[in-house]
Amino acid sequence: MSAYKTFAIVGFGTTGTLFAKHFAQNKENGLKWKVLSRSVTKPELQEAASQGAELAAVDYDSQTSLINALQGVDVVLSALRDGGLEEVQLNLARAAKAAGVKLFVPSEYGRNTLGITEPYLISKANTHSLLKALNLPYALFFTGLWPSMVLEPAYGSVTGINFDTGKFSLFGDGTEPLSWTAPEDFVPFVYHLLTTLQSSQLENAVFQIEGDRKSFKQIIALWEKKTGRKADIHERSEEEIQAYINAQEMELLRFIPRQWQHGGMRVGNESNKLWPEWNPKNSKWEDLFA
Length: 290
Ligand SMILES: NC(=O)c1ccc[n+]([C@@H]2O[C@H](COP(=O)([O-])OP(=O)(O)OC[C@H]3O[C@@H](n4cnc5c(N)ncnc54)[C@H](OP(=O)(O)O)[C@@H]3O)[C@@H](O)[C@H]2O)c1
What we know:
By secondary structure, this protein is of the alpha/beta class. It is built from 13 helices and 12 strands. Helices cover 41% and strands 17% of the residues. Strand 1 (6-10), helix 1 and strand 2 form a beta-alpha-beta unit. It binds NADP nicotinamide-adenine-dinucleotide phosphate. NADP nicotinamide-adenine-dinucleotide phosphate binds next to helix 1. Keywords: NADP, Oxidoreductase. Residues 9-279 form the NmrA-like domain.
């Protein structure tokens, strides 16, 4: 039986939408879920409401607005991103404390960000510091890279991974293993842990979940085997990697090269054993090229 009864999903993008769907698919557990968003008129949110979500429009600059929306909420599940991870998520944490929220789950779902100082992700570490200062219990979920970050041509092509053309420009030799977990797989896992573990097992805990572990070279070899095509691989030299970084305006693209080159996106997988039945079928590279 779940230690918590009422959950607030904050931000209705990729992750927030999947969380809302998962709550709707598990109505028999008798849990309540609400979605906090800047605009509740989005058609997708109206659909979530028709499936059982309560909706709350919020103004992240107003503590009153956030505290009102979080009344009676046990767990905040933040699914914010980018600008939403800065002052927005900090305001949310302050409001959660004031509203009596029992557990705060900040928006993570990537590399281990404990103590991270990289500009792209420092806001995640700032949230951890605030949660500790507020003495608000939290749970962190690190899951590695999303396969869509390289499978979607719009993302893949800017980093040099292009399965359409079969051309691959790697950061270094591409042999460093990285962790891969798709949101469709970590969302059910996070839900499972939040609704089955005791609060003492969740409070201030760090979970590392991994759907697959593969280097770029291993992924490309699998792609060749599955498609029968021959990859055109270029290993960027140190000079080329630095030139790529220097040319980028987006902090994300300045962050990625060294992470991929040196395995920074590798998380542990010790939390996988907490749900042995988990089947991360959206994260297994063997199946992604089927
Ligand atoms: N490891 C990886 O490969 C990887 C890849 C992608 C994302 N991630 C991580 O996963 C987490 C969730 O990302 P996502 O891709 O699901 O996010 P997303 O689709 O971009 O959605 C984030 C939502 O947050 C709200 N939001 C965004 N900017 C905001 C702002 N400035 N102020 C207030 N609200 C704002 C919006 O919701 P409303 O419009 O409903 O208010 C938006 O839909 C993030 O921590 C991200 O870093 C990891």
